[in-house]
Amino acid sequence: MNCVLNATVEHLSTVYLRQDMGLPVSINRYVMCLTCEPVDERRQRKTRALLVRHDVLWDFHLNDRSPQLEKPWHAERIETLRCMAKLYRENQGAFTVLELGS
After folding, report:
1. Rounded CA gap, 23 and 30, in Å?
2. Are 94 and 31 in contact (CB under 8 A)?
3. Cβ pair 28, 101 in contact under 8 A
4. Closest CA relative to residue 49, chosen from 87, 10, 2
5. pLDDT digit string (tens) for 27-62?
6. Residue 33: is it exposed, middle or buried by C-beta count within 10 angstroms (0-12/13-18/19+)?
7. Would you say the pTM of this structure is higher than 0.85?
8. Domain count within the chain
9. What is the pLDDT of residue 52?
10. How far apart are CA 36 and CA 96, in angstroms?
C-alpha cells in the first residue's frame, strides 16, 4: 500500500507547492483501496488500486440497480464499489484517505 501511496502522491507535489505559495488549489478527500480481481479462468489475478472520492463512496447506493455498463464484466467493479462502500461506512480506519488537489 505504501508503494501505491508514494507513487500517487509523487504526481501531486506541485499542488502542495501551489497551496504553500498561497495560490488557488482545489482539494478533495479520496479513499484508496487495493483490490485483487480475477482476470480469467486460469486463476490469474490483477491487483488494482482504486481511488474514490470520499463523498461519492460515502453516498454510494448499496442496493441500487447497476448502471448501464460498457462491458458485462464491469459489473464486478460495481460490486467491488458496493462492498468497499459498506466496509468504509463500518470501519473508516481500515482505509487510507488522501487529500488530493489540482
Report:
1. 22
2. no
3. yes
4. 2
5. 889 999 888 877 777 778 888 888 899 999 998 876
6. buried
7. no
8. 1
9. 93
10. 17
Residue 33 in contact with residue 91, Cβ under 8 Å?
no
Query: Which residue in 37, 36, 33, 30 sits closest to 1, CA to CA?
Result: 33
Domain of residue 95 covers 2-101
The label of the residue with cell 482504486 reads 50
Within a 10 A sphere around the Cβ of 60, how many other Cβ atoms? 17
The whole-chain average pLDDT of the chain stands at 83
Which residues are CB-neighbours of 13 under 8 A, at least 6 positions away? none
Grid cell at residue 76: 464486478
Q: Concatenated DSSP letters for 40-85? A: STT--EEEEEEEEEHHHHHT--SSSPPPP-SSGGGHHHHHHHHHHH
